[in-house]
């Protein structure tokens, strides 16, 4: 009888949930779209998201990857793991005044794991993980959108029902193929946004699990609410935006779980209506859950603030010019213009750029500027959506629009300049999470159009066309992110007024040895931004190498005048002044550089060269010794010490320094060569020969290596071997100084020996 009773009750429960599902309009009913089982829908989303970004898998380290990965000591095994919790995203101490305060230890930890498994800085592994993360997030979006668009309902077995399979698939596809995501996926530094999004979504889905046994909001699992808070904290440890999921969970609870009418609630609060309890505000569990979320969020933010230490980071005017405007009105207008541009990137992601700073978007300084239209359009749309979200009689529409706006706006708040100054104008990576709200609103708009349209298939074909265009745009943009040259050049047409774009193109050309072309772009960068000290410094360096010393000095002097603590420019100015034989000024410039950067081995090295030119040998040795203390692998400083000691007859000291250097840098052939010369002069011929041969094996085309080994054999009496290496040296460099004379002396000696033998 018990068994029969169970069978009789089960259908009734299923019918209850069926009726609950039917109480709201079904978005899927009116759209002409694919209906796939959940498993196949997720497979399709995963495959298409993979196809969009697959061609970025073998890309290089580009743009910010150099600082966040290659130059970040936190990735290396010798750095204690504990340091990750005290350093920012770029490897600097959080307590430092120069730190950006971007605290993302879990993201850096994944970089470190990538580095250890790859055995070095090989970008393929880094890129593959990014692609996998985006595919995983896109698959999770199927479940997230099914809840946001179809509501949260469970079967009697606790299984969540997908009440909007078609629209959730469409929204997930729109998210998966959105071109604005390319920076996050194809740029390795975008790992922070991907990990943040992953735990952001897991936190949301975890919060939904709290209501698996829910009946009218009374029963819920505290465990899953706490798990959601913990996952929100993990998301924030990947990137700061992650904390916003706690606010979104509260909004979701209010609208979906408790089905509150926000406008009605506000009106009752304003009028102090005694029926407030009936409105659902004090419904059992809601305030408790929101208290858990808010107290958890406050605790996380407090801990984050304590770790950050000295306060917000210091950014410059070129990073975010609007935030430095004197007028509050100008700041407000430009911030809103930036919001409109972010909205446009979501609507039409065709013009994408790796950097939007440094004049890319000139400030709006007057209400007569035609760009004010963009602000008006943005707020016209937002106000219209907000009015519908609050005032519509359709509770289903209110819920979807409010959630869509919530997911669009709330994750964007940390990048909005409202709470603190950010270090960018526009950053495509920060739109990764807000695009969830955009995809939701787009899909809802499509369902409303389909409901009104007579030819639904035409609309479906149009949406398919949008998806296809986005896939192609993603593939094209991913290919541009594969190398710095393509990435930087792609920005020239999007942001021709951006000095940083021209600077980066110039730097890329200079690194490839094309100095003439690099000069052109550096000059344009300085023209666009006359205070761009890094462009001046790099241009001054190239001009110095081309022996255009006068202009180089002018540029570097201007750079240190604009930024007096620019240590690299002071050092380069010293090098130019040294070349102009203005030694006292050069010495002052070097010491100024060291004053602003205490640990500056290259500057000590150049200071040593200056002292050597002035025959201040003790000072030169001390300067080079400082360089090697700060940077033990500084080969040039070691070499110069050996050579100076050798030239001044201090062979024993030169030998000791050479052996110390080779102990630290055992595979440096130039050090082998210098020490071999010293040993040869000390008549340690066998050891000297071994080092010469080892150096030649490492660098067989160095004429001087063969020439000096020939001199060793000449002294040692191995004349045939001496002849052989003299000939190799002259073949490699017919003009090698002294080699031809020594070779001729050897030939005469061999002829004399032959005559005596005859």
TrEMBL record:
Signal peptide: none annotated. It is found in: Endoplasmic reticulum; Membrane. Residues 311-383 form the DUF1736 domain. The chain crosses the membrane at residues 39-57, 131-151, 163-182, 188-208, 220-237, 286-305, 372-391, 403-424, 430-449, 458-476. It is a multi-pass membrane protein. SUPFAM superfamilies: TPR-like (SSF48452). It comes from the Eukaryota. Pathway: Protein modification; protein glycosylation. Its EC number is 2.4.1.109. InterPro entries: O-mannosyl-transferase_TMTC, TMTC_DUF1736, TPR-like_helical_dom_sf, TPR_rpt. The keyword Lipid metabolism does not apply. TPR repeats lie at residues 499-532, 533-566, 601-634, 703-736. Keywords: Endoplasmic reticulum, Membrane, Repeat, TPR repeat, Transferase, Transmembrane, Transmembrane helix. Pfam families: TMTC_DUF1736 (PF08409), TPR_16 (PF13432), TPR_19 (PF14559). The keyword Oxidoreductase does not apply. GO terms for molecular function: dolichyl-phosphate-mannose-protein mannosyltransferase activity. GO terms for cellular component: endoplasmic reticulum; membrane. It is an enzyme of class 2 (transferase). SMART domains: TPR (SM00028). GO terms for biological process: endoplasmic reticulum unfolded protein response. Belongs to the TMTC family. This is dolichyl-phosphate-mannose--protein mannosyltransferase. It comes from Alca torda (Razorbill). The gene is Tmtc4.
């Amino acid at each position: 009888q018990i068994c029969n009773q169970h069978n009789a009750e089960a259908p009734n429960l299923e019918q209850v949930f069926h009726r609950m599902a039917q109480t709201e309009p079904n978005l899927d009913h009116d759209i002409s779209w694919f209906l796939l089982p959940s498993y196949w829908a997720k497979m399709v989303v995963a495959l298409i998201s993979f196809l969009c970004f697959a061609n970025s898998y073998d890309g290089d380290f580009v743009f910010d990857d150099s600082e966040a990965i290659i130059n970040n000591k936190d990735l290396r095994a010798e750095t204690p793991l504990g340091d990750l919790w005290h350093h920012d995203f770029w490897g600097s101490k959080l307590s430092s005044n120069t730190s950006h305060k971007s605290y993302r230890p879990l993201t850096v930890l994944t970089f470190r794991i990538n580095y250890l498994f790859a055995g070095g800085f090989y970008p393929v592994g880094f890129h593959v993980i990014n692609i996998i993360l985006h595919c995983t997030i896109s698959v999770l979006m199927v479940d997230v959108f099914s809840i946001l668009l179809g509501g949260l309902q469970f079967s009697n077995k606790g299984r969540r029902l997908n009440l909007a399979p078609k629209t959730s698939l469409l929204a997930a596809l729109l998210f998966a193929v959105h071109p604005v995501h390319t920076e996050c996926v194809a740029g390795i530094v975008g790992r922070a946004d991907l990990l943040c999004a992953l735990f952001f979504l897991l936190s949301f889905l975890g919060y939904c699990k709290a209501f698996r046994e829910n009946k009218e909001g009374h029963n819920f699992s505290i465990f899953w609410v706490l798990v959601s808070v913990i996952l929100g904290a993990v998301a924030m440890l990947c990137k700061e935006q992650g904390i916003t999921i706690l606010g979104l969970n509260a909004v979701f609870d209010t609208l979906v779980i408790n089905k509150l009418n926000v406008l009605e609630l506000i009106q009752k609060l304003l009028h102090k209506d005694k029926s407030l309890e009936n409105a659902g505000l004090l419904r059992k569990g809601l305030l408790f859950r929101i208290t858990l979320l808010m107290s958890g969020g406050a605790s996380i933010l407090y801990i984050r603030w304590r770790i950050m230490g000295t306060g917000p980071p210091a950014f410059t005017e070129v990073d975010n010019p609007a935030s430095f405007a004197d007028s509050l009105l100008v700041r407000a207008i430009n911030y809103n213009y930036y919001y409109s541009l972010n909205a446009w990137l979501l609507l039409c992601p065709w013009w994408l750029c790796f950097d939007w700073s440094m004049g890319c978007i000139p400030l709006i300084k007057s209400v007569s500027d035609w760009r004010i239209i963009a602000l008006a359009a943005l707020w016209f749309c937002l106000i219209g959506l907000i009015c519908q979200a609050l005032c519509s009689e359709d509770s289903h529409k209110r819920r979807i629009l409010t959630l869509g706006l919530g997911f669009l706006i709330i994750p964007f708040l940390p990048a909005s300049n409202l709470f603190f100054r950010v270090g960018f104008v526009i950053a495509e990576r920060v739109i990764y999470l807000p695009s969830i709200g955009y995809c939701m609103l787009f899909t809802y708009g499509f369902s409303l159009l389909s409901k009104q349209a007579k030819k639904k298939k035409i609309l479906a074909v149009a949406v398919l066309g949008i998806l296809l265009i986005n896939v192609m745009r993603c593939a094209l943009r991913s290919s541009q992110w594969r190398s710095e040259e393509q990435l930087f050049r792609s920005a020239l047409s999007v942001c021709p007024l951006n000095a940083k774009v021209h600077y980066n193109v110039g730097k890329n050309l200079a690194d490839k040895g094309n100095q003439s072309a690099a000069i052109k772009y550096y000059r344009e960068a300085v023209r666009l931004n006359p205070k761009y000290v890094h462009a001046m410094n790099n241009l001054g360096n190239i001009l110095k190498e081309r022996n255009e010393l006068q202009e180089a000095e002018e540029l570097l002097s201007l750079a240190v005048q604009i930024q007096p603590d620019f240590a690299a420019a002071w050092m380069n100015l010293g090098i130019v002044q040294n070349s102009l034989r203005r030694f006292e000024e050069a010495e002052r410039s070097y010491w100024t550089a060291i004053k602003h950067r205490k640990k500056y081995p290259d500057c000590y090295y150049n200071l040593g060269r200056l002292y050597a030119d002035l025959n201040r040998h003790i000072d030169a040795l001390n300067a080079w010794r400082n360089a090697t203390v700060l940077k033990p692998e500084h080969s040039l400083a070691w070499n110069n010490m050996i050579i100076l000691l050798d030239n001044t007859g201090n062979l024993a000291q030169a030998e000791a320094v050479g052996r110390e250097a080779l102990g630290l840098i055992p595979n440096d052939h130039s050090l082998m060569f210098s020490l071999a010369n010293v040993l040869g002069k000390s008549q340690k011929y066998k050891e000297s020969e071994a080092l010469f041969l080892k150096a030649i094996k490492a660098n067989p085309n160095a004429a001087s290596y063969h020439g000096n080994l020939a001199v060793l054999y000449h002294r040692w009496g191995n004349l045939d071997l001496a002849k052989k290496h003299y000939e190799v040296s002259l073949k490699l460099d017919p003009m090698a100084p002294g080699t031809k004379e020594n070779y001729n002396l050897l030939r005469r000696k061999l002829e004399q020996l032959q005559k005596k033998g005859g």
